[in-house]
Design brief:
Elements (H helix, E strand, L loop, with lengths): L6 H7 L5 E12 L2 E13 L4 E5 L6 H9 L6 E6 L2 E2 L7 E4 L12 H11 L4 H14 L15 H14 L4 E5 L7 H18 L2 E6 L2 H7 L2 E5 L4 E8 L9 H14 L3 H9 L1
Parallel strand pairs: 2-10, 3-8, 3-9, 6-7, 7-8
Antiparallel strand pairs: 1-2, 1-4, 4-5, 9-10
Helix pairs in contact: 3-4, 3-5, 4-5
The structure holds adenosine-5'-triphosphate and magnesium ion.
């Protein structure tokens, strides 16, 4: 695969953000009335960064991700990606969703990955070879010929990640991709995504409502307030990988305070 430049090189070679979300307002039409879900969101993501979007349920995390993906148009502000205003969904922003049914049920693991490459113009042989490589990277080689119904939830999410990475996107957009997995599988996949991002320096926008996940995976965390939401704070968590470290504990406390969740939600978010 094409390895990207190390983060440090990118930071010195360009100070332009890869993604700029600039005073964005997003709403939904309900009964011919515009309901504002995101009142004012601004943040920037630099190449190679892992940015987490953290907020309570209904705070507009998925809404922002869908707008970056091009599925929703903001009613105010601008979203700029690599100098272009985000208009339509394109494979330069590959999306991984929470649902296990995002794969084509009638295609094997390998065909699921290869098919998106074929659609984006790769020839058959190249698509198959690239698919193989990413399937191997996600530890799925033994399941390459299986169909989605023959996979566990964790394996399906691995295929979805392999498919997204194989597109070599500018950004990987992930909307609670591990939200429906058991705790053990979830932390294993978190470690895998962490390792892959260290290796490939792929830029990630990752939606979560888990403080632990935000701290473990993120370089920075955009904390959203309740809907119609705004950005409360952007927190640098790049030094907080080890859950036993003082820094992790301090940042966890800070994020908990920012979220100001009720007691039950806090425990759910922190200890899941
Ligand atoms: N298709 C839709 N039509 C109308 N309103 C919607 C639609 N999708 C989301 N909303 C509203 O927009 C707000 C933000 O929703 P969104 O799904 O972005 O929240 P979220 O932060 O992703 O929540 P969760 O953590 O539960 O996934 C909510 O008030 C929700 O009811
Ligand atoms: Mg959501």
């Amino acid at each position: 695969m094409s390895e990207r430049l190390p983060k440090t090189n990118q930071a010195t070679s360009s100070r332009e953000p890869l993604l700029a979300v600039d005073h964005v307002q997003i709403g939904y039409n309900v009964d011919k009335k515009l309901n504002i879900a995101v009142r004012d969101a601004s943040f920037e993501i630099f190449a190679g960064e892992k940015m987490m979007l953290l907020g309570p349920s209904g705070s507009g995390k998925s809404t922002i991700l869908k707008a970056v993906a091009g599925f929703l148009k903001p009613v105010g502000g601008r979203i700029v990606i690599a100098g272009r205003e985000s208009l339509e969904p394109e494979p330069d922003r590959a999306v991984v969703f929470q649902e296990f049914d995002q794969l084509f049920p009638w295609r094997t693991v390998e065909d699921n990955v290869a098919y998106s490459l074929r659609v984006t113009g790769r020839d058959k042989r190249e698509a198959a070879a690239t698919a193989k490589r990413y399937i191997e990277m996600m530890g799925l080689s033994l399941a390459a010929d299986r169909y989605p119904h023959q996979l566990s939830g964790g394996m399906k999410q691995r295929v979805a990640i392999a498919r997204a990475l194989a597109l070599d996107p500018l950004m990987l957009l992930m909307d609670e991709p591990f939200g429906s997995l058991d705790a053990q599988t979830r932390s294993r996949l978190q470690r895998e995504v962490h390792e892959i991002s260290e290796r490939t320096h792929v830029t990630i926008l990752f939606v979560t409502h888990s403080i632990q996940e935000a701290l473990f995976l993120g370089d920075r965390v955009v904390v959203l307030a309740d809907a119609p939401s705004h950005v409360q704070e952007i927190v640098d968590v790049s030094g907080a990988d080890d859950p036993d470290s003082e820094e992790f504990i301090t940042l966890r406390r800070h994020l908990r305070q920012l979220l100001a969740e009720d007691e039950q939600d806090v425990h759910h978010a922190v200890f899941e």
